[in-house]
């Protein structure tokens, strides 16, 4: 039950975040209305802020809602999306960060132009804007609307519009500094709220032994395993995870402007690397504080301690999208409910604000400035703000279409699996293979994107066909292989033409980036990477 106290706590939190965002944005303007300050926070960010901002931009209300749903439905298996991200964040720190920081780029399309050509830059800019609108904003709005409608009885679209106005206000006015400052606070609130619901669920269940008893009685012990066989009904067999996730993970963490923009705002290369690795450490937590509560809710339901009648539709079918909201209303005492709602809003607002700032940067630097190279900083900032506002409107228009997915988490990963392969391919070959040519990358981006869109359309138009039966992660892998074959073949057909300074745009060997100087002792990025890899290996062994 939502009390007046909970409502007041929620409103006060929103007001605080808006005030903090505007204050941070205004503080950044003391040095002038420079585009570098607005889009990249004057390249002044330190590693703790970068790590928390990366995590906050990744984790949204969508994750809290959908990961709890997946925990209830299939157990811990979806946690692979969280733990596998640690490996791609290590790749970001070791192999991608040095290129990005040393070249002084403002956007990732800018990097593609330097490595390949202008056509690659334009295409990635367009795809990045579209993916930010769909993946980072529209899906997050949808999850937030469902939660607020369930908790407060507010019409979903009304609540979404209000959130859009509030988040858009401080993001559009304050730029990246406002985004990362508010994200740092919201990460703490989000984690605190997730820990609260986990502890309360654990206490209500009665510890680990009752969980094992319920799962053993129902032959559901596989719900505790992170690695399933080929017959896994959730569509996440172990080989799909290890073959398909790197494809979408490298795009998301290493080549997506919305995520990488926090790294581009680092004060130096070591802070950028440490921030990425710190985020990899934090990414261990979602399995235990986002997915495990959903599994505990399943146990509580089987014990008769959680009433799910509110989730049943008129046809008697149970729709578990609202399981997290139901846990809040039935397990959390008054007062703390407001904190949990604030945590949900934290994830929602941080995801949206980060995406809006990246859209503003992409449109200003990669699209507008191309046709107006003499544009002043003030004009670039103005165009960026208009772009962010238009993106909000477009994302709202997409909501009815995206709401057709039964599982929001499945929906977002389904979309990513068709977008990521060509981008991952041209980035990987671009930094590791000298012979990757501009024409080959250009045609691979075009053909790969067209192929991904075609496969997606066929899968949706023929729901009972072969393509619809293939797990999204395997589709990502197959598309990546096709793109890699395409780019390698085209690189021989259209040989690379080395230009002055081109040798600085790819690694001569995979060991080259590991020889770069880092901080001393345990702060060295190589030592931290090995430690993170070791911990992840232990976790996978324990939950194999």
From TrEMBL:
The keyword Chloroplast does not apply. Its main location: membrane. It is found in: Membrane. One of its GO terms (molecular function) is D-glucose:sodium symporter activity. GO terms for cellular component: plasma membrane. The chain crosses the membrane at residues 6-26, 47-68, 83-102, 123-148, 154-173, 185-203, 236-255, 276-301, 336-363, 383-403, 415-433, 445-463, 475-496. It is a multi-pass membrane protein. It holds the Pfam family SSF. Keywords: Membrane, Transmembrane, Transmembrane helix. Belongs to the sodium:solute symporter (SSF) (TC 2.A.21) family. This is Sodium/solute symporter.
